[in-house]
Design brief:
The complex is a heterodimer of chains A (about 120) and B (about 425). In chain A, the strands form 2 sheets. Chain A has a 4-stranded antiparallel sheet. In chain A, strands 3-4 form a two-stranded antiparallel sheet. Chain A is built from 2 helices and 6 strands. Chain A is α+β, with helices and mostly antiparallel strands. The C terminus of chain A is likely disordered. With about 425 residues, chain B is mostly helical. Chain B is elongated and about 85 Å long. About 5% of the residues of chain B have low confidence. Chains A and B meet through helix 2 of A and helix 1 and helix 9 of B.
């Protein structure tokens, strides 16, 4: 089953410590070696992005930054056997932030990807 | 949120099972290094799991450095040390009593448990090689590999292979006993035997993949999951053996073949042949990964083996937008290479198809006609199908009709039979536009 993970959070005023990047790379390496991490990348701040909206029949474009309290930080695509496994991997990434970057708060949304590898395709 | 729960509590059993699946291969591999016995290692790892199932729901999932994985490892290590010490004492007692003066007590000594973490990669590789050891039957290798490296339960393996659970349980018990009886060492094969031993590993992974891939039943969604299992095993092995061209070749082959899974069945779960597949439904991510794996194989600059060549063929299809745009000349050439590496009438038959597409049906038929008296292809459905297609393209419709009739007689699949009968009838009575 494939799961898309979207990590978002609010950065504290302190810069991220180099150990955090090392720990993230190490975890990512472990997940890749285990054959479960298919794709991942960090995202630049929303200041460099844009949003296209359809509302009331009208298409509008808004340039970033967006005013939400949390910024999207990264995405990751996992190939695991269960939602619990996806949760376990996501927890490990969040805990690395907790342990190495005091004050950081955030969340990971875990969503199963539609496709032939999942029970939703049955029948 | 109302349904928020602390990550360390609630749903603990399934959370523990998830941790187990992630950690058990490394756990068992590390323990097998200490005990030298895969069966004992698995039992020790299971003991640690049982303790976790008792403690974690009460105390919460361990949250210290290294997380639950480190906890499981530490717990199992203690038990492994106890076991090794007990054995050493037993050997010593035997010697003291002098019951068996000939017995050369093994120098067990103190296990070097701290070295465990430094050798995880090597240990995992040893575990894969021992699970796929040639002293075991292919079925036993597959079951043991899914159990020890895939972290699957006996129940899940049984469901995946559509066999009763006791059969799998027995297969695994026997396999572990065989490894112990034959004193198969927990080690990476010596360079001289590495190629043959690696073949054995790759064969098992591809068998697991095909077990899932050739199942056309759409009701059993765990079987595509079996493909995914094999793909994960392949990726794991590629990380452990990055210099082996055939490992990347097999990974590429599986990713590329799996990219078509979504297009291989129609709305009524009927099989859809490659030529008729909606290529927009092919999984671009898996194609990208497959092509990347193939590139890694090529960059090694060594002669590719059969998996890499088959992956090259699959890549030709993956790169093409349609049957017409496919580089059939390249595929035909690759089948020559494949026939050289693994000569077989089936490979020749596939070459006949490619040659027929690249250079015209006449040339393809020349090859296919040389195969009609091959004993290995007697009763092989694809032979009359290929000949029928080529004959039809040459306008030799009576002969084509006979081939399709023959194919309909040979197949055991009802849907295929209907398909071939329809083709046979169409060739026997060509429509008015053509006449």
């Amino acid at each position: 089953m494939r799961y898309m993970m979207l990590l978002s959070g609010t950065n504290p005023s302190t810069p991220p410590p180099p150990e955090l990047f090392e720990a993230i790379m190490k975890l990512g390496g472990e997940a890749t070696e285990a054959g479960v991490l298919l794709d991942t990348a960090g995202l630049l701040p929303s200041a460099t992005g844009a949003r296209v909206t359809l509302a009331g029949g009208k298409v509008t474009v808004t340039d970033g930054p967006f005013t939400e309290s949390k910024e999207l930080i990264s995405y990751a695509l996992y190939d695991v056997r269960s939602k619990e496994e996806a949760i376990e991997w996501a927890s490990r990434f969040v805990k690395v932030h907790r342990d190495l970057w005091p004050g950081w708060e955030g969340e990971t949304d875990i969503r199963q990807v539609m496709g032939p590898m999942g029970p939703e395709n049955v029948g | 949120l109302d349904n928020a729960r602390p990550a360390n509590h609630g749903h603990t059993r399934s959370a523990i099972e998830a941790v187990w699946r992630i950690e058990s291969p490394r756990l068992i591999a590390g323990l097998a290094r200490i005990t030298g016995d895969v069966g004992a290692a698995e039992e020790l790892a299971q003991d640690a799991l049982v303790i976790a199932l008792e403690q974690w729901p009460v105390q919460g999932v361990p949250d210290g450095p290294g997380g639950p994985g480190a906890w499981l490892m530490a717990t199992a290590k203690h038990r492994a040390i106890d076991l090794v010490r007990r054995r050493a004492r037993y050997e010593q007692k035997l010697q003291e009593v002098g019951r068996d003066m000939e017995t050369q007590a093994q120098a067990y000594g103190e296990p070097d448990v701290d070295a465990m973490d430094d050798h995880i990669g090597d240990d995992l590789l040893r575990l894969i090689f021992i699970a796929c050891h040639p002293v075991l039957s292919t079925e036993a290798r597959a079951a043991l590999t899914l159990r020890l490296i895939g972290g699957l339960t006996t129940h899940e393996i049984a469901r995946a292979f559509l066999v009763p659970e006791p059969t799998i349980a027995q297969r695994i018990v026997r396999a572990k006993r065989t490894l112990a009886d034959k004193k198969v060492p927990f080690e990476i094969p010596a360079p001289g035997e590495l190629a043959a031993r690696l073949d054995s590993v790759l064969e098992v992974i591809y068998l697991v993949f095909n077990e899932g891939y050739s199942a056309t039943s759409g009701e059993d969604w765990i079987r595509p999951e079996l493909c995914a299992e094999a793909q994960r095993l392949g990726r794991l092995l590629a990380g452990l053996m990055p210099r082996q061209v055939e490992v990347h070749g097999l990974v590429a082959l599986m990713e590329l073949q799996a990219s078509r899974i979504g297009a291989r069945t129609g709305p009524a779960d009927e099989p859809v042949l490659l030529a008729d597949q909606d290529r927009l439904r092919w999984d671009r991510l898996l194609i990208r990964r497959g092509l990347a794996a193939l590139e890694r194989a090529e960059h090694l600059g060594v002669v590719p083996g059969p998996y890499a060549v088959q992956a090259e063929i699959a890549a030709c299809h993956a790169r093409a937008g349609s049957v017409k745009d496919t580089d059939w000349e390249r595929i035909a050439a690759l089948y020559v290479v494949l026939a050289h590496l693994t000569p077989s009438p089936v490979v020749e038959l596939n070459r006949a198809v490619a040659v027929g597409m690249a250079y015209g049906p006449e040339r393809g038929l020349e090859i296919a006609d040389t195969l009609t008296d091959q004993p290995a292809l007697a009763g092989y459905v694809q032979l009359p199908v290929v000949r029928g297609e080529l004959l039809a393209r040459l306008g030799r419709l009576d002969e084509a009709s006979r081939e399709f009739t023959r194919a309909a007689e040979l197949t055991s699949n009802e849907r295929e039979r209907t398909l071939f009968r329809t083709r046979a009838a169409a060739c026997a009575a060509p429509n008015t536009e053509e006449s």
